[in-house]
Amino acid sequence: MIPKNVIGAGIDRVDGPLKVTGGAKYAGDVSLDGMVYAVPVTSTIARGNIASMDTSAAVKAPGVRIVMTRENAPPLFKGGNDYDDACQSGEDWMPLQDDEIYYDGQIIGLVVADTLERAIHAADLVETSYQSCRPMVDLTAALKKPDATQPATALGQPLQYERGDVDKALAKSPVRIDRTYTTPVQHHNPLEPHASVAEWSDDGSSLTLHETSQWVVNSRNSIARMLGIDQSKVTVRVLSPFLGGGFGSKGYAWAFSALTAAAARELGCPVKLVLSRRQMYSLNGHRPSTTQAVTLGSDRRGRLKATRHLCGTYTSKVFQYIEPVVLSTQLLYKCSSLRTGFDLARMNTGTPTPMRGPGETPGLFALESAMDELAFATGVDPIDLRRLNYAERDPRTNNRQRWSSKHLNECYDKGAEEFGWKDRPKKPASRRDGRWLIGYGMASATYPAQNTSSSVKVSLTADGRAEIEVASHDLGTGTYTILCQFAANELGLPVSKVSCRLADTFLPPSPCAGGSQTVASVGPAVIAACKNLLTFRKAGMPGEETVTIPGSQPNGFSWQSFGAQFAEVRVDAALGRIRVHRFLGIYDVGQIINEKTARSQVHGGIIQGIGMALMEATAFDPYFGRVMTPNLADYHFPVNADIHGIRVSFIDEPDPHFGPMGARGLGELPLTGAAAAVANAVFNATGIRVRDLPILPDTILAKG
Amino acid sequence: MNPFRYVKATSPADALARMGRNPGARFVAGGTTLLDLMKLGVETPDVLIDINHLGLDGITEDRHGLHIGAHVSNTDLAEHDSVKKKWPVMSQAILAGASTQLRNMATVGGNLLQGNRCGYFRDVAMPCNRRDPGTGCGALGEQPGVEGINRYCAVLGTSPSCIAAHPSDMCVALVAVDAKVKISSPAFDRLERAEDFFRLPGDTPQIQTRLGPDELITGIELPELPAGARSMYLKVRDRTSYAYALTSAAVVLTLDAKGRIDHARVALGGVGSVPWRSHEAENALLSSPPTEEAFRAAAEAAFAGAVPYQYNGFKIALGQDTLVRVLNELVRPGAGERP
Ligand SMILES: Cc1cc2nc3c(=O)[nH]c(=O)nc-3n(C[C@H](O)[C@H](O)[C@H](O)COP(=O)(O)OP(=O)(O)OC[C@H]3O[C@@H](n4cnc5c(N)ncnc54)[C@H](O)[C@@H]3O)c2cc1C
Ligand code: SF4
After folding, report:
1. B3 and A121 in contact by Cβ < 8 A?
2. N or C terminus of chain B with fewer C-beta within 10 Å?
3. A456/A444 same-domain check
4. Which of A533, A549, A565 is the last residue of a domain?
5. Same domain? A637 vs A574
6. Which of A323, A360, A490, A668 is catalytic?
7. Rounded Cα distance, A388 and A411, in Å
8. A150, part of any domain
9. What is the value of pTM for the model shown?
10. Residue contact A575–B236, C-beta within 8 A
11. How far does residue B1's CA lie from ligand 2's centre (Å)?
12. Residue B274 falls within a domain, yes or no?
């Protein structure tokens, strides 16, 4: 029987059984004949120079095959910095080529031994001495340094932006909110550590890499470039069939992968490297901290007259990463006078990189908190305030260009109804249950929709089985399942008759599994290939079809996803304890492909949002610049006991002007705005406005 | 991580004999603290003496109280019927610590010796007097005004050489119920009161307890609580589970016929260099009526000598409020201790 509604149904993950039985092999699980183990030696200072490295004890330690330092490392080259050409490295620099220390935990050596334990031991035996300087790890101070810049754009959008006359409009606004919000450094912390297993063919003509990669095509191109490989002479193959989460940290290529391959080349045998959790706090990116000054001007009824959003954030000393914080402010509300500004400092930290909802996530914490402050100041209900300033058309185009589809008002309505918003305590700190103060809060969510060119191959057998092959990825998000659904739907097959192979550069290329674009990019290619196979299918003949389709071309519409999120918190103010009692998210992301994997994505995003609101933060020692929370006991994110009553609902309306299925993607959306919904609920519960995340018990005490 | 040898001891005497005077040997029980420290390079033993098979895993009860073997797991102790009934503060404290998996492995003896969670102590690249005497205190910092990450550090009992907080939950309850630690040494066996077992850092923060390097903990004894005693443990932390205490309080209390407090033992967690018995709070409570004012006065007395650092000053107010909350809950149960 062919299920009638394959698209949209909550179909179980097709890779589920493999995962729960241990059959899914992750990069770090790969074990090859003659394989040896690499362990990076990392710096313990955050700024300065290496004075000397004594490797004599390490070299003599049992089982050690090689100790690589700047003295004997092969030449390695900067990876690419070209996202559009799928050659995007996390850093613009390679380790082991010079003496300089730019950040704590930087790779300064690589030890390879016949067992992991021996490699770890020998890495400990390397004695390094430094000339160290005081590192810069204070964002406020760093923003005042001469190396801070004002980058003009990010992702092709203007960061330094103005429409109308903000100063004039502000001066004339009877109500003004003028506040500074800060968000801390956060680490992705996927459960699966980053790993690389490298194997060369005997004649050196091919290199196979088992990687933790959200973008195998990029890993191939970037690592080849770091190694100085000419891909027309040497075949590089990258595989990453399963990922235990990435959240962006496995998107750009990192130097440790190239070092693994370089060691394998030197030694003539396969080499495995798995980063330790501590190393994952330095070597694969993080979300940078931000300080954001938001000024809103409105009339007494809450109609926005002016918006100003100025963000300061940072990148490392070895790469210009821009967390595009202010972009969503330019489009979320109708406001004719609006300015955004952006300052980028340089700090002695590991290099930041995209992390789920880069830009929108910290940005909407500030904007949606400020909107809540405006609601309070004007006495307008927070939802009414947002309706009042609803952007019917894209405000960046002088309110001319239409959205491909936008149902944010329905999100507000549906959310208010389901959540029981009308029971919201009208006055802060006015409702309690025993010692627990109760408060409701809400915030909008938004994230752009995008897609990029992808290829795909679909093969059909005479007995009616189909196989999809594409170098796309499943981060745990459900790609395997969803692509099977597309093919099943087009070919009129049950999902069980469709299989899927992913994340191998020998398969047709596809874009980064980032920016919530996988479904929107790869899905259309699968559909196109299947359509071409329909005649074979009807004739009961085998066939195969490889197609490449372009990303969506500008069509006169703005593509954007939206949502509304609601939180009820309970606060024990005397002890600073906060519990998110329930959380509701309503999302407008176009067509839902798989209700179950979509829901699970959103749950994850909301949980991450609760973590961002209440506990997540990486601490650097202010003097030494060393990460002081480099493990999952000291870096807190929610545990089961923190999570209650999450409910999720979709406005399941296909977008008529975005891709063939009208599905805009939803991976990042739920995290944007979630922290603001919680913080706004904390205000409603206690009357305490927290503008600096996370909201820890001491925050409540200090302000209560 | 250093190469090491592993040996299995078969009896307390065998364990002591194998330990001898070897400064490079360590007992390993559940391993949840020790193995972590070995991976971090903080502990580099050359011999691990496994003490999981010494026959120290029983719990027996007599008219003096409860005798608990050193190897009883944290889970088994917390779930023991008598403990839940007669020493609820113990059960609550243990269940407030770590995670189920850790508590299943962790032992009573190991919990007493878990030592320290200071991030500088656990990072061999950072200065720490407790780990490497004389290197300085990373949590206090190198420069005045630029202190280290010391939000979790103590405000009571600190010294200029170390300000780390004692991390254990169970040990706070042990002090509150006046438990004794049973110690075997090559020469003789002895009992130490839990509250005397831990040492203030002073100038020698590396010495954390009165246990000699060649001694073995064989068990603990919980004395019967006074008739009519109520007891409770409350912990405040950064998330609902699986986080160390910012502050905690363990209290054992009885009221006389007139409703006045005639027995009080107060121990505080997360705020002291050691599990902190507060005689000041107890004195303030004795003979008082159980009122909010009396509780507040006791809490203020408990923290009268507190010294805050750059990031942990909040612990003084929070510690007081935690104690007041426990006292209130003990005399008016259910007045709001609902999550
Ligand atoms: C991630 C994490 C979170 C945690 N959270 C908490 C928490 O919230 N609250 C809390 O209280 N605890 C917490 N803990 C600590 C936990 O309670 C301890 O690790 C545990 O109790 C130690 O017991 P063990 O048997 O595993 O000790 P081991 O690791 O085996 O030993 C610890 C030390 O004690 C010595 N030792 C052990 N037994 C004896 C003995 N009988 N005689 C002499 N010496 C002995 C060992 O030589 C070693 O030095 C946490 C631990 C971890 C890893
Ligand atoms: S507080 Fe104690 S444990 Fe922490 S760094 Fe200072 S001396 Fe070491």
Report:
1. yes
2. C
3. no
4. A549
5. yes
6. A668
7. 15
8. no
9. 0.97
10. yes
11. 22
12. yes
> Mean pLDDT lowest for which of A606-615, A657-666, B101-110?
A657-666
- Please give the distance, rounded to the nearest whole angstrom, from the Cα atom of residue B38 to the centre of ligand 2: 18
DSSP state of A495: G
Q: If you search the block for the tokens 């909301």, which residue do you land on?
A: A606
Q: Which residues contact A301 (CB under 8 A, 6 or more apart)?
A: A378, A380, A388
Residues A633 and A541 in one domain: no
The domain spanning residue B293 has which CATH number?
A: 3.30.390.50
Answer yes or no: is pLDDT of B21 > 90: no
How far lies B133's CA from each of A692, B149, B155, B217, in Å? 37, 19, 21, 25
CATH number, domain of A494, equals 3.30.365.10
Q: How far apart are CA A589 and CA A520, in angstroms?
A: 11
Question: For helices A595-614 and A674-686, what crossing angle results, to 10°?
Answer: 50
- Number of the ligand closest to the Cα of B54: 1
**Are both A521 and A482 inside the same structural domain?**
yes
Same domain, A517 and A651: no
Domain count, chain A: 2
Q: Which ligand is nearest to the CA of B117?
A: 2
Q: Which domain holds residue B237?
A: 230-331
CATH code where residue B20 lies: 3.30.43.10
Q: Are residues A440 and A483 in the same domain?
A: no
ipTM of the complex: 0.96
Average model confidence (pLDDT) across chain A: 96
Asked if the Cβ–Cβ distance from A434 to B338 is below 8 Å, we say yes
Closest-CA distance of chain A to residue B62, Å: 37
Return all residues near B85 (Cβ < 8 A) that are at least 6 apart: none
CB B250 near ligand 2, within 6 Å = no
Active site residue A368: no
**B109 CA distance to ligand 1 middle (Å):** 8
Query: Tell me: the pLDDT tens digits for B49-84?
Result: 999 999 999 999 999 999 999 999 999 999 999 999
Would A314 be classed as within a structural domain?
A: no
Which residue, of B50, B69, B84, is where some domain finishes?
Answer: B50
The total number of residues shown for chain A amounts to 704
- Asked if residue A164 lies in contact with residue A675, where contact means CB atoms within 8 angstroms, the answer is no
Q: Is the CB of B275 under 6 A from ligand 2?
A: no
A584 and A474 within one domain: no
Of A488, A520, A549, which residue sits at a domain end?
A549
Count how many domains chain B has.
2
Q: For Cα atoms A18, A19, A23, give the angle at the middle one, nearest 5 degrees.
A: 50
pLDDT confidence band for B339 (50 / 70 / 90): very low
**Is 50 exceeded by the pLDDT of residue A159?**
yes
Claim to verify: residue A587 and residue A697 sit in the same structural domain: yes
Residue B321: pLDDT over 90: yes
The mean per-residue pLDDT over the stretch B177-200 comes to 96
**What does the pLDDT look like over A282-315, one tens digit per residue?**
999 999 999 999 999 999 999 999 999 999 999 9
Smallest CA–CA distance, residue B336 to chain A, in Å, is 4
| Residue A203: C-alpha distances to residues A198, A199, A234, A268, B193 (Å) | 15, 12, 10, 10, 71
SS3 of residue A530 by DSSP:
helix
Q: Which of A129, A568, A569, A626 to mutate to test the interface with B (most CBs of B within 10 A)?
A: A626
| Residue B295: CB atoms within 10 Å | 25
∠ at Cα A162 (A156, A168), nearest 5°?
170
Q: What is the extent of the structural domain holding A677?
A: 380-450+553-704
Per-residue pLDDT tens digits for A41-53: 999 999 999 999 9
> Which residue type does B337 have?
E
**In ligand 2, which atom is closest to the CA atom of B119?**
4
